[in-house]
Structures are given as structure tokens and as C-alpha cells.
Amino acid sequence: MSDKSxxxxxxxxxxxxxxxxxxxxxxxxxxxxxxxTHVECMSDAEKHLTVNQVDIIxxxxxxxxxxxxxxxxxxxxxxxxxxxxxxxxxxxxxxxxKALQDGAQDYLVxxxxxxxxxxxxxxxxxxxxAMEEELxxxxxxxxxxxxxxxxxxxxxxISGNISFLNFVAEKMTGWTLSEALGHPxxxxxxxxxxxxxxxxxxxxxxxMVQKTSLHLPPNSVLIRRDGFEIPIEDSVAAIxxxxxxxxxxxxxxxxxxxxxxxxxxxxHLAQHDFLTGLPNRMLFSDRVRQAIAAAPRHLKKVAVLxxxxxxxxxxxxxxxxxxxxxxxxxxxxxxxxCVRGGDTVSRxxxxxxxxxxxxxxxxxxxAISARRMLQAVAxxxxxxxxDLHVTASIGVSVxxxxxxxxxxxxxxxxxxxxxxxxxxxxxxxxxxxxxxxRAVERQSIEESLRTALQRNEFSVHYQPKINxxxxxxxxxEALLRWTHPTQGPISxxxxxxxxxxxxxxxxxGNWVLRQACKQARAWIxxxxxxxxIAVNIxxxxxxxxxxxxGVFKILDETLLDPRYLxxxxxxxxxxxxxxxxxxxxxxxxxxxxxxxxxxxxxxYSSLSYLRKFSIDAIxxxxxxxxQITTTPDETTIVTAMIxxxxxxxxxxVAEGVETQQELDFLKAHQCEEAQGYYFSxxxxxxxxAELLRAGLVEKSLVDTLR
Length: 706
Ligand code: C2E
Ligand code: MG
Ligand code: MG
Description:
Elements: E1 8-12, H1 16-28, E2 35-39, H2 42-51, E3 56-60, H3 68-78, E4 84-88, H4 93-101, E5 106-109, H5 115-148, E6 152-157, E7 162-165, H6 167-173, H7 177-180, H8 185-188, E8 190-193, H9 203-210, E9 220-223, E10 229-240, E11 246-255, H10 257-271, H11 281-298, E12 301-310, H12 312-319, H13 321-338, E13 344-349, E14 352-360, H14 363-378, E15 381-383, E16 386-388, E17 391-399, H15 406-423, E18 428-430, H16 433-452, E19 458-467, E20 473-484, E21 488-490, H17 492-502, H18 505-525, E22 532-536, H19 539-543, H20 547-558, E23 565-570, H21 571-575, H22 578-591, E24 594-600, H23 607-612, E25 617-620, H24 622-630, H25 632-647, E26 651-654, H26 660-668, E27 673-674, H27 685-694, H28 699-705
Bound molecules: ligand C2E and magnesium ion (MG) (2 copies).
The site of one magnesium ion has 5 residues, from strand 24.
């Protein structure tokens, strides 16, 4: 601080003798560089200070216009940042001490001053003031920092009393700093465990003793002055002096209500389905485990019901996801109303719900619940302007009979649900061990199917269609054949549904179509009399975006005239998505491709679609043909189907004709075409070529036809 030498001194002294004395002392110390200004009263001093800056003020406390501490205050006010040394008389030392408290840096007692001590005192005063200024700036900076951070900061002194609170701490505790100052920390920071409600021991005290950084337990809650509770997180550190002795502690804590609320919400989300708010798969499994653990104690059974909606996808696709979502919400509410408080309804995703019935007396209770659920789901759901109707299929598994753990119970209920679906809509089915055998078989078929194309395990057989008037072959139906490497031939009825489920039908169907077109082209090139080649198309293929392009591409590749190709679609394919169906059918028709409705009578049997869509033929399902000879009633159905086809100018084909009797009936009722084992089984291409070459199926047959 050597540069803080005194260049400008202001002496405020009404006694000219004293003033002179001081000036002489300066001269004595050779401090000639100091510019010495002398005024005799406070008002002159104030005037001087408004225009001049001085390095120090030497102030007599007994002036004509102001005395004592008032003089100190006025001087401080006039020059707050200028060091101040006061002059007192011998009997006024207590006043001098007060002056120090009010901001003077030092005092000198008149009559006891010598030149050296005067100068030293003034220099020290200048230095002390400079240090105070620096400290003030430092403190200001710290204060501003502490008040602008988002965390709350509280400090204590060595005895654990509050010495500082920043704005955030004031807000969170409900105490202002001035109110809190000197109060024991636990009085201001009341921290309890959110769950046990026990007071948490003051981390600051522990900190100061143990010297390790401490944290509050995770569930800490700060109780504000007005009783409001705020979850907090903290860190505590001790403040040490230069010798390393703790002089207090600082605790930094923050309001974590938002983060904690978010954690709770995240935990909820992780366990619940966002759409319906129902427990999800994870939470459900947990509940099943709990129910299983409790069941033996209460000698009760536990049931798992797997519920899947029938035809939900159709609603979703045709009315949009928003409507689908609302429907799922409506269903979830109804399901919850079907069970008791202790039971759990969960959504597994999609249109699948799984229900846990705990503490059941008998398995029959599950059947009662299943029936109730089926009824509840089937009642109309009003969503927006729609009155929606859906049905469900339910599979039931029971602990301990059908499984000892949650996973097995859910899996078996799922398997039973599939069985229920196969049995027809709106039904429930209890799990039976035999179902698992089928499920396993399905799984193994799927695995083998994945490699079947590359391994050339497929072939296409052809079955003739016979024109019943001429007795000649009017066309061929291409039927896929699969020879499994170890299991031998597997029926399409077994593997086609699996291929449809897992999407493999797309590449497989494409392969069949290409094979059939190539074959047809080869026969036509060989001048064999083939009118049409029919290929079966699954719903999934038909709905695929690349379907049309795929068909056209194969026709181009194989150079087959589209007139020769006939596609067989089932009624259910035509029923869904009327608009897009219509445009696809029109595109096929425009190309010259013929269209037939396969398995006619087994699906919706709605006449309206036959009128709406441009179709060439209907194939009456073999189940109706079979009944021609067994159930007289059905004959009227077949008769009606033939009549209807004719009136709509459609070709009518009878499928699965096996007997002469059936044939006679069909001929009598003017059915145009027939197909069945009676004429020929599906045969490999070489054999079919021979049938074509002969121009008819069997000579004897032709005779009977004539
Ligand atoms: P579908 O299209 O109705 O084919 C007729 C089925 O009836 C064929 O069974 C055929 O062998 C059988 N059948 C023909 N005449 C008679 C008869 O007189 N009596 C009896 N009991 N059955 C007869 P297959 O070949 O087992 O095919 C079953 C189903 O698999 C087909 O029914 C068709 O829906 C599907 N399918 C076959 N090949 C393909 C294909 O390449 N693609 C697609 N998507 N489905 C195919
Ligand atoms: Mg067919
Ligand atoms: Mg058929």
C-alpha cells in the first residue's frame, strides 16, 4: 500500500492553534508533498468535498456547526469512500470508539499527538480504508453471486447459528436474512424425512465435527416457516479459517419438487400404458407374481385372461387411429368395471388386454368373468359420431393348473385365446396342454418356412377346372406344395396361415405367381389348350403396396397375356377397405386379368360387393358341395348361389366335387364349371400337360358328361 501516500489532506478544525500544530507536524516529518487544506466548520468541509477529492479527512468532533457522532456521519456522507480519522479531547475516548463503529478508521486524542504517530495513524487509516473497500467489493461480488444462483445457500457460524441466507434460501425457508440471523440452524432449516417424518440431524453440525462432505438422505423435505413442504437435495461444506479450524458451515440446497414429481411420473409411465393408463406388461407380471405368492396362503386360485379384440384392425384402418384409440380407452374402462378391486386389468399393447383375477374360489369364476367381459366389450361404443361394435376372444389360464409363474400363465392364456378365435368370435376358451403342442408346431413351421424358398422346397401343382358342358379343361388352379426336408409334404392349410402371420406369404406368393405364369406361358407356347391359370392371393399380398406392380412385372417378365391370368381372392379380402379394393380390382381388370371369389359362401356372403366390384367368377366353397348329398337344405343354398351367379352374369365354379352324385346335381342346376378330385387331384406340371394334351380329363368322364 506504499502508493497510498497522502497527497491531499483535509483538516476540519475550528481551533486555529490545533490546525497549525498539525501542519507543523507534517513539515517536521518532511511530508511537504502533502497538500494541506484547512477548513473550520463542517459546511465548509462539505463544500470542499463536493468539488475536491482528498486522500484523508482529519476531523475534529467539536465543530461550531456540528458535534460528536453527527460530525462523523456528515463527513461520511459527504465522502463515503474517503478514510476518516477523528480528533477528540482527552475526556472523550468513549465517543471515539463509537466513531470507529460509525465508519471512522482511527482516532487521535488531542494533546497526545506527536508528529510520527500522527502520520502513522493517517497512513494506516488510508490503508485500512482501502482494504475495507476491497473487502466490500469482494463481499458484494459474493453476495450478488449467491443471490443470483438458483440454489439456496445458508451459512452458519461456529456455534451453528445462521449467519447468511441468500434470496432463494429466504424464499424457501420463509425467513428473511435479518430475521434469521443468529437463530440456530435447525430452527430455520427444518428438515424431515418425507416418509418417516423424523427430523433429519443437522448436516452442518456433523460436517463440522467429521470434516467430510455430507448429504441429506434422498427423501429430505424442508418445512417452510408456514408449514409448506418442499422436497430438497443438498450439499454441505464446512468453512475453515486460515488455520484450518472450522468457523462455520455452508449448506447449499435446492428445491427438487419438479424433479421428484417427474421421477414419480416417469416411474408411473414405466409401469403404465400411456393410452389407457392401465398397468402395462411389466407391472402386470409383478401383480401376477404377488397374487401367486399369496394364493397358497389363502387356498385360492389365480386366473389370467388374455383378451384380444376381433376386427379391431379394421376399425383402426378404416376410421383412423384416433377413433381406434378412443375405442381402446372405452374398452379398458368397461373391462375395469367387470373385475373386483383387487384384480388387475392391463394392456399389453395393440388390441390385447390381460386380466388378472386373484383370490378365485373355483376356475368357473374365471368363466363367469370372461362371459361378463365379452358382453361388456360387445355393447356399442359411441366414439365421436360412430357407434362402434367389436367383439373379443378370451383365453384363460389358471394357477396352479396351467402354470406356476406369470410368464407361463400369460403365454398359455394367449394360446387359449388363439383357440377361442378359431372357434369363432365372441368366445372364451380355457387353456389345454394340447394347445401348446399346436403352438410349438406353428413355431417350428415358421422357422422351416423361412428357409424353404432358398432351399427349393416348394413346388406348384395344378388342378384342372372342367367346363361341365364340353367336358374339357377350362383352366388350371395353381396350388402350392411344400415338401419339408424331414416331415415330408405339409398341407397348405397348415403352413399358409403361418406364412400369412409372419409375412412370409409375400415372397412365397410372388414366387407362386411367377411359377404359374411361366408355366402357363410354356403350355401356351406348346400349343396346349389352356384357357386360364388361376392363382390364389392372400389378403396380406392383396393389401401390400407393391402388389399391383408385382403382378404386372411378372406378366411382363413371363410375356404372359393377362387374359390368361385369373386371381382368386376370398370374400374377406373384398369386404375390407371397399374403396382401395375397388381401385385395385379395377386396375387388374383394366389390364385384362380375371378375378374370382374363392371359397364363396364362407365369408360375409354379401351380395352387394358382388355388384359393386367387377368380378368374373365365384367359386362355391366345397363345404356346400359336400352337403349336396347329405343335407337336403343345403342344396337350396347351392341352387341359390348358382342362380345368383348367373343373374349377375358371373361364371360359377363348384369346388371340391368328389362324387358322381354331386356332379349330376350341379349339371342339373346348370353350374358351368367344376373342380375336384372326381376329375383330378392337383398334379405336377408334367402330368397336367398330359391332361391338357389329351384335351380332356378322362375319356370315360367325357362320356358321362355328354
Ligand atoms: P383353395 O384355393 O380353396 O384350393 C382348393 C383346395 O381344395 C386345395 O387344397 C385342393 O387340393 C382342395 N381340393 C380340390 N378338390 C378337392 C376335392 O374334391 N376334395 C377335397 N377334399 N379337396 C379338394 P390345398 O391345395 O390343400 O390348398 C388349400 C388352400 O391353401 C387353398 O384353398 C388356398 O386357399 C390355399 N393355397 C394353396 N396354394 C396357395 C398359394 O399359392 N397361395 C395362397 N395364398 N394360398 C394358397
Ligand atoms: Mg383357390
Ligand atoms: Mg377354395
